[in-house]
Design a protein that fits this description.
The complex is a heterodimer of chains A (about 220) and B (about 700). With about 220 residues, chain A is an alpha/beta fold. Chain A has one domain (about 1-225): Rossmann fold (3-Layer(aba) Sandwich). Helix content of chain A is about 20%, strand content about 25%. Chain B has about 700 residues and is α+β, with helices and mostly antiparallel strands. Chain B is about 35% helix and about 25% strand. In chain B, strand 1 (about 55-60) and strand 2 form a beta hairpin. The longest helix of chain B is centred in the N-terminal third of the chain and has 21 residues, at about 130-150. The two termini of chain B are about 40 Å apart. The chains are: A alpha/beta (about 220), B alpha+beta (about 700). The interface between A and B is medium-sized, with 32 and 32 residues. Chain A: It catalyses: N(2)-formyl-N(1)-(5-phospho-beta-D-ribosyl)glycinamide + L-glutamine + ATP + H2O = 2-formamido-N(1)-(5-O-phospho-beta-D-ribosyl)acetamidine + L-glutamate + ADP + phosphate + H(+); L-glutamine + H2O = L-glutamate + NH4(+). Chain A: Its main location: cytoplasm.
Chain lengths: ~220, ~700
């Protein structure tokens, strides 16, 4: 069973639940204070505005008891996935290195983007071809990934923003992220943060071209339930 | 004392009360009797609307916060529209954000889950930096609130006119879903229920309802604007939906604050409120200010005594204030006490029955403007001027700031088609659209009222949906000006007739008067319709393919008054008549064509006329070739043919044009094949003339981004 954590201000918990159901992965939405780590084999921190994103996006959630429990799970090698605000929580809590800075355009940006899978040794990308192109939406105001350690970024990035042919270009970078990074994971590949929303690219009806690339990622959790 | 009542109303209060009210009582009456809350200048005329139908569960009954209609399978949708025009003129970010918060609370007060927002924005000339500042902050404010609470903004309008230089219009509509048998009323019908208030009360938004019911003074009115806190709004949203079936009534605290909320909720019964029990954001607030404060993110619940703990426990989980502040009584009196001392005691009957006004009317004289004949305008100049007008450019800069994908239910997304389409919990698809046309309303508010209703109907048809419900928002200047009130009356007459013709009930609405610029000139009449409809069978997601046939459904007429072309060049022409039968049948034809998979693209013709509908095809990276002689029209003037905005028309793309033409004939209307799509990207071919519009297409996509880049 995968836990989808709801903090006050989280908005995407039911979307993730619906997408996991579509991927036939058992999951349940858990309020953050009621989270019992022993009951779950993996965790998703969904998108939204946890605690109103007061102070800094994700920073209050990152300092809850819940995140301490989740750190233990991560150390045990269980999957910990952060999507959008969940990614922000992962970097704020130190589970992933780096920071998510305000978009270069200094405003919220909602759009469908192309992504290239550059690491296939993570929980979500194992089994996908290297350089596979995926289509998914982003929706955030603070998604510009930055880290001082260039080598860390290069070695750990999982997906990059590209054009529809897989070229990593400045035009294809929606927020100004270092190396067009859309997703990054720890070395072990079990803690993954991503700004794009796979759960929003999991249903044929609501996808602009009928593609459901988000499911390709979420199905990676099937082994962990 | 700062109250806004008319001398005749002040006399009326004294007469009916048979005593002089104290200061606190005057403030309560001022709030409850404000135009914003009481609809005193509009209510009589609004009664003429078509409000009933077999699908209507809750209409414009007195003091219900929103209307509701049945959508089958035990589900209902709740629809509500609001504006935050005055606050947005002073503090656009908070003004627009609290507009979203307010409408969300109206929807959850029915126990419904908000699933979609629409925003219809009108601002002034973008060459003025003040207007860019207003627009930037209005859009950011809507995004800030909507995104934070996880309700997608799925569509809207963004239009410009120098009339809105000092008075932007910020309209938001919200759709909610609820099980039909779980709809919660906003009014109570028995004494003894406890009044439970969630949220803290502060000093922002003091006298906001009264502020919204008068002209902007130009003085410091920032204290009347509320501050938005979407995190608190999200908690209110989640918690209210958790407790909705444990309470007897729910009421949003909006205009007029607690004074209005308790009066309306009691609905003729009495109320006693102990002010000292109201949790405050700041210490030592004046009890009078507590009563009329419009601090956001507060809700009022009427709860059976034995369930109070259960209700407040839900809020405790979120660490959100929840307290019993009073109860419903049987004595038909609205009472506020402070530490045992009664400071307000007014009969419900007095508060709920303000004097209603019908103001004098006078038809506006046509201004003697300099007009030219449309045949004097050069074709290419007309094309470039109209197609580059800010009303018609891509609005991606705005909607990309909204999280329109949250809920994973947005099927047709902003910018994709004439209507947005969302997936409902019963698996059905709902199309929604908001339409206004102030330029046409300025020419003839009656034809315009009919026209915008028909336009909304056609917009829904273009994605395969049939309209089932509408709400209206009537935005005008000072109703006491006879010419303003005349256009108000005419707009209502037009909307009402169209609603009866299409048999689509109006289940709610809003009136906003006193919209004027700093020189006291009223805005153009801006009634607005938001319509929702269901897709019965298939829906259409537009695409463009080379060699598709371009078919024009409906007659084109040389009636250009109120058109965009006329706005730019000043053309002497007639007002387009709304021919509702043509709108209805053409819409049925489009829906049939979608269900039979005969068309791949459909666009309603309105702003910018046929020229803009064709340009819309070209923005997909194609060219179009048109034989103008094949356009069925009452005029040979090519400018009139291309830029007329008369209704009853669609452009569709098909590979089986004969089917459409025959089907049209079988229904008693016309359709003709007027051209084809080609791969000559950016080129508009009219007969033998080729006009390259590639640079206009770039301009179309980049204009707002460029103009807003530097604030």
């Amino acid at each position: 069973m995968i836990a989808i954590i709801k903090f006050p201000g989280t908005t995407c918990e039911f979307d993730v639940f619906k997408a996991l159901s579509e991927a036939k992965i058992p999951a349940t939405v858990v309020k953050y204070k009621e989270f019992d780590p022993d009951k779950f084999k993996g965790v998703i921190l969904p998108g939204g505005f946890s605690f109103g994103d007061y102070l800094r996006a994700g920073s209050i959630a990152a300092n809850t008891e819940t995140i301490k429990d989740i750190k233990r799970m991560a150390n045990e090698g269980k999957p910990v996935i952060g999507i959008c605000n969940g990614f922000q929580i992962l970097v704020e809590s130190g589970l992933l290195k780096g920071a998510l800075l305000p978009n270069l355009k200094l405003r919220f940006i909602s759009k469908w983007v192309y992504l290239k899978v550059v690491r296939t040794d993570t929980v979500l990308t194992k089994g996908l071809e290297k350089n596979k192109i995926l289509k998914m939406p982003i929706a955030h105001a603070e998604g510009r990934y930055y880290v001082d350690d260039i080598e860390y970024a290069k070695n750990n990035m999982v997906m990059q923003y590209t054009d529809n042919l897989g070229n990593v270009t400045e035009d294809a970078n929606p927020n100004g992220s270092l190396f067009n990074i859309a997703s990054i994971a720890n070395e072990e590949g079990n803690v993954i943060g991503m700004m794009p929303h796979p759960e929003r690219a999991s249903f044929k009806l609501t996808s602009p071209d009928g593609s459901t690339d988000g499911l390709l990622l979420l199905k990676g959790l099937a082994k962990w339930v | 004392m700062g109250i806004n009542l008319l001398p005749i109303e002040i006399d009326e209060v004294r007469k009916r009360l048979r005593r002089e009210p104290n200061e606190a009582e005057w403030k309560v009456i001022d709030a409850v009797w404000s135009e914003h809350c009481s609809y005193k200048s509009s209510k009589i005329l609004l009664k003429s609307f078509h409000m009933e139908g077999p699908n209507v569960i809750m209409g414009i009954e007195d003091w219900q916060d929103a209307g509701a209609v049945d959508i089958g399978d035990g589900w209902a949708i709740v629809v509500k529209i609001e504006s935050h025009n005055h606050p947005s003129a002073i503090d656009p970010f908070n003004g627009a954000a609290t507009g979203v918060g307010g409408i969300i609370r109206d929807v959850i007060s029915k126990g419904a889950k908000p699933i979609a927002l629409l925003d219809m924005i009108r601002v002034g000339d973008l060459t003025l930096s003040k207007n860019r500042w207003l627009l930037k902050n209005i859009i950011a404010g809507i995004g800030f609130y909507g995104n934070s609470i996880g309700v997608p903004v799925v569509g809207g309008e963004l239009a410009f006119d120098e009339m809105y230089n000092d008075n932007p219009l910020v309209d938001v509509a919200c759709i909610g879903v609820v099980r039909r048998d779980k709809i919660v009323p906003s009014v109570v019908n028995k004494p003894g229920l406890k009044l439970v208030l969630a949220g803290l009360t502060g000093i922002d938004g003091l006298g906001g309802a009264s502020f919204a019911s008068r002209k902007l003074s130009g003085e410091d009115e920032i204290g009347a604007v509320q501050i938005a806190d979407p995190f608190a709004g999200k908690i209110i949203l989640d918690a209210t939906l958790e407790i909705a079936d444990k309470v007897e009534a729910i009421k949003d605290l909006g205009g007029g604050g607690l004074a209005v909320a308790v009066t309306e909720m009691a609905n003729g019964l009495g109320v006693i409120v102990d002010i000292e029990k109201i949790p405050l954001r700041v210490k030592e607030m004046n009890p009078m200010d507590i009563i009329i404060s419009e601090t956001q993110e507060r809700m009022l619940y009427a709860v059976k005594e034995e369930r109070v703990n259960e209700v407040c426990k839900t809020f405790e989980q979120y660490e959100y204030p929840c307290s019993v502040i009073g109860e419903i009584t049987g004595d038909k009196t609205i009472r506020f006490r402070y530490n045992g001392k009664e400071i307000v005691s007014l009969p419900s009957e007095l508060l709920l029955n303000p004097p209603r006004f019908l103001w004098p009317i006078k038809k506006k004289k046509k201004e003697l403007k300099k007009y030219i004949s449309s045949s004097d305008i050069e074709l290419e100049k007309a094309l470039r001027s109209v197609l580059s007008h800010p009303d018609l450019v891509s609005k991606e800069w705005a909607y990309s700031q909204f999280d329109y994908e949250v809920n994973t239910s947005t099927v047709i997304k902003p910018g994709e088609a004439d209507s947005s389409v969302i997936l409902l919990p019963n698996g059905k698809l709902l199309a929604v659209k908001g339409d206004a046309n102030p330029d046409l309303c300025d020419e003839d508010a009656y034809e315009c009222g009919k026209g915008i209703f028909a336009e909304a109907y056609r917009n829904l048809a273009s994605v395969g949906a049939k309209g089932i419900v509408a709400v209206d928002h009537l935005q005008f200047g000072d109703p006491k000006k006879p010419e303003v009130y005349y256009s108000f009356l005419e707009a209502i007459r037009g909307i009402g007739e169209a609603s009866r013709f299409f048999n689509i009930p109006i289940v709610g609405g809003k009136v906003s008067f006193y919209n004027e610029n700093s020189k006291g000139k009223e805005i153009k009449p801006t009634p607005l319709i938001v319509m929702a409809g269901l897709v019965k069978d298939k829906f259409l997601r537009n695409k463009v393919e080379e060699n598709s046939y371009i078919v024009l459904i409906g007659y084109t007429r040389g009636e250009l008054a109120g058109s965009l072309l006329s706005k730019i060049f000043g053309i002497s022409s007639e007002v387009p008549k709304a021919r509702l039968q043509e709108d209805l049948i053409a819409s049925e034809l489009v829906i049939d064509s979608i269900n039979n998979e005969k068309i791949i693209f459909a666009k309603d013709i309105n702003r910018g006329g046929l020229a803009f509908a064709l340009f819309g095809i070209m923005t997909y990276g194609y060219g179009v070739h048109i034989n103008t002689r094949d356009i069925l029209s009452d005029t040979d003037n090519i400018i009139d043919v291309l830029f007329s905005e008369n209704g009853g028309r669609f452009i569709v793309l098909t590979n089986d044009p004969q089917w459409i033409v025959d089907k049209a004939k079988s229904k008693g209307i016309v359709a003709s094949v007027i051209g084809k799509v080609n791969k000559d990207s950016g080129v508009l071919s009219l007969n033998e003339i080729k006009i390259n519009l590639s640079n206009l297409i770039n301009y179309h996509f980049n204009f707002l981004e460029e103009v807003m880049k530097n604030g």
